[in-house]
Structure formats: C-alpha cells, structure tokens
Sequence to fold (824 residues):
Amino acid sequence: MTVTLNKHRLVDTMETQARIGGTDDGGLHRLALSDEDKAARDWFVDQLAALGLSVRIDAFGNIFGRRPGTDPEAAPVLIGSHLDSQPNGGIYDGQLGVVAALELLRTLEDDDVETRRPIEIVNWTNEEGTRFQPGLQGSGVWSGVFDIETEYQRTDRDGVRLVDELERIGYRGDTPAEPREVYEAYFELHIEQGPYLDANDANVGVVTGVVGLSWGEVTFTGEANHAGSTPMHMRYDAGVAAADLLTSIRRIPGRLGDRTVGTVGSIGVEPDSINIIPETATVTWDIRDPSDDVLDEAVDQVRAEAESAASREGIDCAVEETARTAGVEFDDGCVETVQHVADEFGYESMRLISGGNHDASHVDLVCDTAMVFAVSEGGKSHTAEEYTSWDDCFTAANTVANAAFLTATDRR
Amino acid sequence: MTVTLNKHRLVDTMETQARIGGTDDGGLHRLALSDEDKAARDWFVDQLAALGLSVRIDAFGNIFGRRPGTDPEAAPVLIGSHLDSQPNGGIYDGQLGVVAALELLRTLEDDDVETRRPIEIVNWTNEEGTRFQPGLQGSGVWSGVFDIETEYQRTDRDGVRLVDELERIGYRGDTPAEPREVYEAYFELHIEQGPYLDANDANVGVVTGVVGLSWGEVTFTGEANHAGSTPMHMRYDAGVAAADLLTSIRRIPGRLGDRTVGTVGSIGVEPDSINIIPETATVTWDIRDPSDDVLDEAVDQVRAEAESAASREGIDCAVEETARTAGVEFDDGCVETVQHVADEFGYESMRLISGGNHDASHVDLVCDTAMVFAVSEGGKSHTAEEYTSWDDCFTAANTVANAAFLTATDRR
Fold:
C-alpha cells in the first residue's frame, strides 16, 4: 500500500515557504536563527499545529511534530530536513525535504490512514553552517556528535552568540536535544547538489551513503630572490612546486576510483610580488571518496607528489592532513525501502553516494537511515539559480514519504 | 696612468655611512627622504664640502659635487649612485657606488691630480622606490623620463607627499632637476644583486647593459562549483589552468636563451575556499632578456601556453602585458674603458648584463654610460645578509673610479 501526495498542495507549500526570506531573483536568504528563520519556524509550527500534531522544541531549537501510531510501544519513524538557507541560496535545497514530510502527514490525515509506528517530522537547526559554524549543527547536537554547551557559544561574524539568538527568536526549547527513545528509522530528502541525476536523466536518487573526506595543506619553503638577477638554475621557487603539485592533485582522482574527487580550492605564495621569486607557497586539498582506504591512498599520493615537486625545485615541503571524515554507508534495509518505493511508482531511479554531507550522516549514528535526492538541474546549488522542476519535486517527495510510510506500517 | 684608492679609508667611510640608519643585525634601514636619509645626505654634503667641491642640490633632491677640470669648456664626467636603502636592506647596494666616487675625489685631492674634464659626483634621490614609487626616481626626473610635478605628488603609505618630505628634510634644491650641460660620460658602481660573479669566481663585473622586461597577467575564468559533488569530468577549474601555466612559464626561458629569466611571483584563486572549485585564477609574469625580440617571443609563448591551459580545462583566459621596458645597451666606449681598467689592475673581470634596473638606465638616455658590479656573496641583496668582502669592495671601487678618471683625462 502506498500513499500519494497532493502535488498541487506540495507546490503551493513550497511556494509559500519560499516567500519567507525570498529574494528578488527567486532565491532564498534565510540564515539560521535570523528573523527570517524565526518566521519560517513559526509558519512550520503553525502547520504542525493545524494537523493536531504534538509539537516539541528541543534545547537546540530542533522542531519535532509527532503523529501517534496505533502501537504505543512501537519505535517511531523520523522524517525531515532543514528550513534554513545559505546566503542568497536556492528555495529547494533541504526545504523540499521538510515540505515533503509535511505533505506526508497531511495526506495521512486527509486519507484517515493510521500507522502502527508514530511518525515524527523534524526541522534541524542550522544545517547550512554559514552564519554559525559548523553546519549540520542541530542534528550533530541531537546525535551526540557535538557538545551542546560548546555549540551554544558559537558566534556569528558580528560576535552574536548562537544561544542568545536561539533565546531571542524563542526557539530554545525545554526538552533535551537528544533522542528520547529508540527510533526505527530516519529518512531525509534533499536536492542532489550535484549533476549526476540530471546528467543521467534519472527522476530520483536513491542515496546509499555519503563520501568520506580528507582536507589538508601542503607548504613549500624555498628562497625569495630577485626575479631579474637570479639565473633559472639557481632558483628555489616555492610557487613552481606548488603549481606542480596542484596539477598532480588534478590527476590523482583518475588513478583511484570513478567516484573519487580531488580539488585544490586555495593556492597562495609569499611574498606575493610580481618581481620576487616566491619563498613559500601553500596548496590546500579536498579529496573525497566513500572508502577510507582510498582516502588513505590519496593522501599518500599527495605526499609523494608534494615531495617530488619539492625535490625537483630543491626545496622543502610540509604535508598536513587537517581533517578527515569517514564515509557513511546507509542502512541496507532503509536504502532498499527507498528503492522499492521508487520501483513501485515506476520512477527512473539511480543509486548514488552523496558528495556533500547531510544531517542524515549524524542521524545514521542514532538509527537506521537513508536519503532520497531530488534532481537538481545542472547540479546548481546554494544559488538562486538552483532549480528542481515541480515534477521532480513531487517524485522525490512521494519517494521519501512512502519510504517513511512503509516503514511506519512495517511493510518495508 | 691610474689612481689607486685608499682602501683603509674606503672601508672606514663604508662603515661610517652604514651607521646612519644602521640596524642591529648589521643591515641598513634608510628609506628615501626619511630622517635617516636626511642624516646621510647631511654627512655626504659635509664630505663634499670638506673636499672644497662646489655642491649643488637640484629641485628633486639629487646632490651633485663638482671638482673642476683644467679645461673650462670640457664636458664633465659624472660618477655616483644612491645612499637610500630598502627597508632592512644591506649596507653595500648603491652606497658603495657613492663612497667609491667620494674616494676618487679624495684620492685626486690627496695626490694633487688634475683632470682636463670636471668630475661630478652624484647621489640620486629615491633609487629604491619602496617608500615612494616608482624607484630610480631622481635619475628618472633628471633624465626627463619622469615629470617632476607628477613625482612631487607621490605619497607614501601614510599619505605623506614626496615634495613635502623633500621640503621638510631641506633637500628641495634650487637648481633645475635636469642636465645643465653636455656630459661626457656616467659611471655607476652597484653590487650585482645576483650570483653570477660569485658563482664564476670573478672579482668585478663589467656591465654591458640592462635586460629588458615584460610584466603581465593572465586571468582564467571557469566555474565555481562544489568540491564534493562535482565529478572530475564536469569541472571548469580556473586554478588548474593557472597552475598549468605557471609550470609552463618555468620552462619558457629554457627555450629562449641562456640569459632569459621568467618568474611567476603571484598566483591567486577566487573564491579561495578549500571546498569550492576556483572560478577565477590569476598568474603574473616577469620575463627578462636583453633583446626585445626575445621578449616578444616570450610573451607569444605565454599567450599560447595560457590558451592551451585554458582549453584543456574548457575555460576562458585573458592575457595582458602590463609593462614593457626595453633593454639598455651601454656605450661600447665606456664599457671598454671599464674593461681596460679591470685588465690593467689584473682583476678577474666578467662581462654581464644586469638583471635588475639601475639609475644608469636613465642616465644612458642623457650621455654615454657604463656600470661596474661588485661581487655580492651568494647574490643576496635587499637584506642585512647582503655581503661584499672589503677586498671586493675595493676592487670594484678602484675599477669605477679609474674608469671615470681615465675618461676625465681623455685616456679612455
């Protein structure tokens, strides 16, 4: 048995939420804990209340709305995403995931459908991490990854503390920011933020995990010298070694795997003057792959390439991995439920691993989890140009809603 | 006939001038038109007065001291360099050239030697160009390359105007900053600021010219994108193209000539974030060679390499040459005079082309010119570590002094 969301109402709700902090160019500017975020939260709570759900706001501002199941002992199913946006971001991002969950609960009410398990809808606080770092903050606190007292003290660029903003907008709730019980599963819908689904003409993405990530920095130290009077063979040019490494990092992913990506987002030299041979140069790396072993191999290759580049210039280098996040493999059962729903509805689905991180990575530490991706045209994301057709919104929403519904009725 | 400078007094005078603005680590901090520069100028004028020379300060602060010749109609010989220094620079740089000239005039007085031509010693204002840009400013105004009114208005980083500082330290003189008569020749001694003499075990450098220079900038424009979710084959990474070009510029000089040098002193990407594929990237170039044709060819190669790099990433590039200075070929007669002197004294001389620019390039527009380079250990320059042994100081000073002396006695 499946339920079918009301597409007209889904679109209407998407348009309604998009007006709260909407920008002139059709984007969304709704930074976490801003006045716009408060307005979106107030609207969301009103929608939950109108459905007669019991609303709960935890100490970190995460908002839950619970629809009871027929079995008071059964572990609930959680479904949701986030309402906050990037500065001048798009209107789909995670918002679609919240609206899809809302539409599931509305549809169950409309159709008078009962589920054995309770269904909880959730809006996580500060997924984006642009006003206050880090991102995925609400889910991180709830999952026990972050310490709430530490996160309370985070400040934005004006020095405003997160906890003070949470108080100011009235969303420092009175229930503990932690799982109060055992959850059966968590499902999250998000736009892809990448081009795979669009490039492969898929309708919907069945997300099997999130890639792991290695961040690091290489610093080369040579000798500053006069650009005019220093012969080419007597130079120790840190900039040349850095550029040499950068082009190598471009090639490393192609040696490791078809889903490995590697990026140098930052390169700089000192003293950074047109007529002085650079003394020092730094290059950052961002390498991602689902496998920790592949990340290890990638970092080894960066180190070897850095040492070769330094040796070719006769200079020194220091290689430091500054961050490592393990890849996440979602629960097979949850993934199969999503796949089953997509197949039932006849959607052209595609399995993929998320290249960006999501609240689901945190929630996966608490309970079985899976994600659904909506098609994002050209992979555009975090910009007003982000676009998902209403058809694709509906397809993805219907998929995540039914995955939660099937789990709540134990049909998964 | 030659004169031989007093080495003990040369060393003593070098040590005396080095104390005016001297730094704790044995360097020199005597920025143009600062209190330290004023003190050095006052000391210099005292030395000229003590020799009974007629001292002249022009409207741009260039200081001249003239020793008459026996023929009142004869064109004078000019010899000198500059007393100002880089921030925390070395004590030799151009200072040695001024002290060598002073020692020539002292020696002629000591030995009661007359010359047919007058000899003028000069200290040029603001050679270094760090406090006020551009450098080589006093010689540039005097030679008619720069407009004095424009240069007066230059400001330092505190917004102080050059002309006001010139007034404040009392060195805005009342004679026009221009050649008042025809000059027979100009000789300038400077340290090499490069490693060629030291690397070739030469005692002294016979400088035949100054290399020409091309400066430019290449800007690549690609597409910013998410470092995690953008597949390698769907990237338009401006940073990769910039690094690619940088490594190519490292190779261009090796295809063009044994004195061609090419440097990328600056590379940068935007948005310059560890997890965003760079949208734009810029690379500067500094390429030097004595020949304008070689510089043309070098710029053509940079353009071709930039276009290849851009095309490999499927992005755009813009190539702009921002400055071009033609190479200077010093007067054969003056160069031969320097060579003759070095040979007469049995010095191990080496002919070379200056990779850095000097006041002599400007003066060469006014009269026949040549330069002498002193050996600089390891080519270090513009740092307290700059070092020329007193033997090498003496050798170079003796060479430039006798070149001027021979020219003043028409023995060249």
